[in-house]
């Protein structure tokens, strides 16, 4: 018997729920609008958006041109002074109201995220839940973090599609809580529907937030370099990040540019293979489409047989399939490791990188297969890829210096500690790394030589929540660090230096 799409996540029903909750976000003919100049308007040039889950159409992105986006920026800037003058207790009250209303829509938001960016239900729920609970922590602690600091004005947000709530919405609400007006661009690859729902709630609560859609090429100038923008928060790839960094080099404004790097896991003199197996499985959350995903394992050569056995057993147990399917209408949604990558184009890019690695001399050690029973018969599977792994990746391979942003691992074998450190530092800076060894003192000492902002000892490190700071070293981050008090300091001004990774200096917090 073939599977069915669970009635609880059928997209037409979810969209009807959203229209009932936030009717203002829709045009009379059912298209989602842009939130600008304090109200929902402007359909822009509609661009069809299809789900990575099965290729079905989810609606139309309202793509704006530069001139219309400029109107949005100018109005958002005009809201900044009055909002900055609003008493902190009033700002807290409005953000709290927003959080209370968002909590009522957690299920709906998480299920919309599934269809938009292909997350499993568990990960979609976690994304919105982390955003709400993270901002709640700031509401409860903002007085001590803010002190006498003053908001910067208008903060612009350009973020990737993989965490629309726990990264983008979270940042926007904290920026507003700190007294700034805020404008955000919806990620072009996914998230505009769920973000429209949450931003509609935020605006209804009186928060000065603006949400616009459009291509990066069309909107970059007004959202990055325009004089009305006082601060830029960017999350994305190195290519776009470097271009933005270059654009900001002659403009004196605050910025936080989070970019990718090759996050590595070094293994030396190690024997806890059961513990590593659990980490390997956990590392495949969302098909490694995370800025903190570990995609390179640097392994002491003599340990390769044990590593390979552990890797095979762990990865072959992962289930990859359509996250909306069940056997019967009342069944729970499937417990999958991950679903599709973000779209068919990214899947094809992963194929190209893998083929390039093989052509340049890498050796494949694992090629997973998709399980037919985890899909609908004949459904579009163009965005699905099973895990793959390579060893002996040559330096001429593109993957050697590049994060794949998908389910491809590479393993590098080394004979000396100096080699291990060198290979772990291959991308000139990373957000996270890990060093595993039975010798804890050696691991702690070696971790200091790894150019990553956070280095785990025998465990994975993540972005972190609440009071945990976050940033990057080298080319993985530019500008102010965030997380905890640092996020508030990044979007305000006061009488102390803002910690961060700057062209002229690196100002690190005492504890990471």
UniProtKB/TrEMBL annotation:
Residues 46-485 form the Aldehyde dehydrogenase domain. It comes from the Bacteria. The keyword Oxidoreductase applies. Keywords: Oxidoreductase. InterPro entries: Ald_DH/histidinol_DH, Ald_DH_C, Ald_DH_N, Aldehyde_DH_dom. SUPFAM superfamilies: ALDH-like (SSF53720). This is Aldehyde dehydrogenase family protein. It comes from Hymenobacter volaticus.
């Amino acid at each position: 018997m073939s599977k069915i799409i669970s009635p609880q996540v059928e997209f037409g029903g979810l969209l009807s729920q959203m229209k009932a909750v936030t009717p203002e976000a829709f045009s009379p003919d059912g298209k989602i609008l842009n939130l600008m100049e304090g109200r929902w308007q402007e359909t822009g040039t509609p661009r069809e958006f299809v789900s990575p889950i099965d290729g079905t159409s989810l609606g139309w992105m309202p793509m704006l041109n530069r001139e219309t986006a400029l109107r949005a920026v100018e109005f958002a800037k005009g809201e900044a002074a009055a909002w900055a003058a609003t008493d902190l207790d009033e700002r807290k009250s409005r953000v709290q109201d927003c959080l209370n209303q968002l909590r009522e829509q957690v299920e709906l938001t998480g299920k919309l995220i599934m269809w938009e960016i292909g997350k499993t239900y568990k990960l979609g729920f976690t994304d919105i839940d982390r955003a709400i609970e993270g901002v709640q922590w700031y509401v409860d602690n903002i007085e001590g973090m803010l002190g006498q600091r003053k908001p910067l004005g208008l903060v612009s947000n350009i973020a990737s599609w993989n965490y629309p709530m726990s990264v983008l919405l979270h940042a926007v609400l904290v920026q507003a809580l700190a007294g700034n007006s805020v404008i955000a661009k919806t990620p072009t690859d996914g998230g505009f529907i769920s973000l429209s729902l949450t931003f509609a709630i935020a605006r209804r609560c009186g928060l000065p937030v603006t949400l616009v859609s459009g291509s990066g090429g069309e909107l970059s100038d007004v959202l990055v370099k325009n004089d009305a923008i006082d601060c830029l928060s960017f999350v994305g790839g190195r290519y776009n990040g470097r271009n933005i960094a270059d654009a900001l080099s002659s403009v004196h404004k605050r910025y936080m540019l989070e970019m990718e790097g090759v996050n590595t896991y070094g293994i030396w003199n190690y024997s806890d293979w059961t513990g590593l197996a659990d980490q390997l499985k956990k590392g495949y959350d969302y098909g490694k489409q995370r800025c903190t995903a570990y995609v390179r394992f640097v392994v002491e050569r003599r340990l390769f047989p044990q590593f390979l056995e552990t890797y095979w057993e762990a990865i072959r147990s992962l289930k990859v399939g359509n996250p909306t399917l069940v056997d019967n209408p009342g069944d729970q949604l499937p417990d999958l490791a991950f679903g599709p990558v973000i779209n068919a184009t990214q899947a094809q890019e992963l194929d190209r990188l893998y083929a390039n690695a093989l052509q340049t001399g890498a050796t494949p050690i694992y090629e997973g297969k998709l399980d037919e029973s985890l899909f609908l018969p004949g459904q579009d599977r163009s965005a699905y890829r099973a895990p793959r792994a390579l060893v002996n990746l040559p330096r001429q391979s593109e993957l050697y210096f590049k994060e794949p942003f998908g389910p491809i691992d590479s393993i590098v074998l080394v004979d000396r500690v100096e080699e291990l450190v060198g290979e772990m530092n291959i991308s000139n800076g990373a957000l996270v790394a890990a060093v595993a060894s039975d010798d804890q003192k050696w691991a702690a000492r070696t971790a200091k030589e790894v150019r990553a902002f956070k280095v785990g000892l025998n465990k994975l490190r993540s972005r972190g929540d609440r009071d945990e700071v976050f940033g990057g070293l080298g080319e993985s981050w530019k500008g102010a660090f965030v997380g905890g008090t640092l996020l508030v300091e990044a979007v305000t001004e006061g009488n102390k230096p803002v910690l961060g990774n700057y062209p002229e200096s690196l100002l690190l917090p005492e504890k990471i």
